[in-house]
Design brief:
Strand order of the largest sheet: 3-4-2-1-5-6
CATH architecture of the largest domain: 3-Layer(aba) Sandwich
Mean pLDDT: 95
Distance between the termini: 11 Å
Number of strands: 17
Largest sheet: 6 strands, parallel
CATH class of the largest domain: Alpha Beta
Bound molecules: adenosine monophosphate
CATH topology of the largest domain: Rossmann fold
Oligomer: single chain
Amino acid sequence: MNINSFNFFNKRALIRVDFNVPINNEGQVTDDTRIRMAIPTIKKVLESNGSVVLMSHLGRPKDEFEKKYSLSQIVSTVEKHLDQSISFAEDCISDQAFRLTENLQNGQVVLLENLRFYAEEKKGDSSFAMKLAKHGDVYINDAFGTAHRAHASTAVIANYFKEDKMFGHLLESEIKSVEKVLGSDGHPLTAIVGGAKVSSKITILSNLISKVDHIIIGGGMAYTFVKALGGRIGKSLVEDDYLSVAKDILDKALENNVKIHLPVDTITAKEFNNKADIFSHAIDAIPDDQMGLDIGIQSISMFSSVIKNSALILWNGPMGVFEMTNFQKGTISIANAVAEATENGTFSLVGGGDSVAAVNQFKLAHKVSHVSTGGGAMLEYLEGKVLPGIKAIQE
Ligand code: AMP
């Protein structure tokens, strides 16, 4: 079933959204991105003369009501973006909630209270999922951020909607973007992988090796590769247990005709501190009392030219400690190179955690083709895992 072709007239659409937004001590939403991203799907149903029941989690409550995690705090933000008033159900499966959703008229919207006030949500409890399912005639999953969880509202619930289940616009665009990169035969395909550790990116690297033409490796993880090749990396971040794994990746890349690009130079400091003096060294000749905290200018120019000659780009993980101004040049420059390539027709997907934070921080999000909304979900997708929230709709 497809959201564009489905006839929502007189139907109540139960939409799993990701309204897990940051809220300050005064109960105000401090970043409404996730709410804004869900609006097209909600509007689609309303404009087709259906009604909408919204369900989400917020934060990590201890399986019971906690005021600071109440979704009542976001009602006015949702109303502002929808430009209409909505009703709020103070418990997601109470009689009051069912009365509200049973009597819903076309064009109306109800928001259910935080699903995680029930332990059954995270446990994927089927009787809880069955109760939730009663709120709608059709189920839409638009929460990519939780698609890697087999929770009651993200996966199990789909069992109670035989045919009438579908992806929302947001989730659909996330899937299309990853499939475009990993499933397409457009070349050259370049993966830029950075971030702190090899250990957290190893499954991604192994999965990508059979699919990409180039892998650019930056960030803290690069030093483990450099050490594996016999370089001197000083006090840089290293995972000694992963030296042979790094070597294996390099060997596999060679077998698969994948070109791995490691940094050739690095910006170093004696302390992990933005106030420390900075130096520049060849990546494999870092003095013992220094650590590499960003890629150097030669690496930036080398990486940028690979990026600009790519048809498809996938970027996960920063090139250095971009949170500190002295070590953000590498990440900014790579973000600019990706933006420039995109302007010239390259498809670029930025996904998973800190690279998303980086493009947002540098105000370049609108200059890449797709910025993923799901950190952990995107990582698992890139690792080649089947996401329960996606599978449940496709089955
Ligand atoms: P990840 O969550 O694995 O993508 O890692 C992101 C983190 O890696 C960011 O907080 C960066 O500050 C950090 N990082 C990037 N490069 C380095 C480096 N050379 N040394 C230490 N940490 C780094």
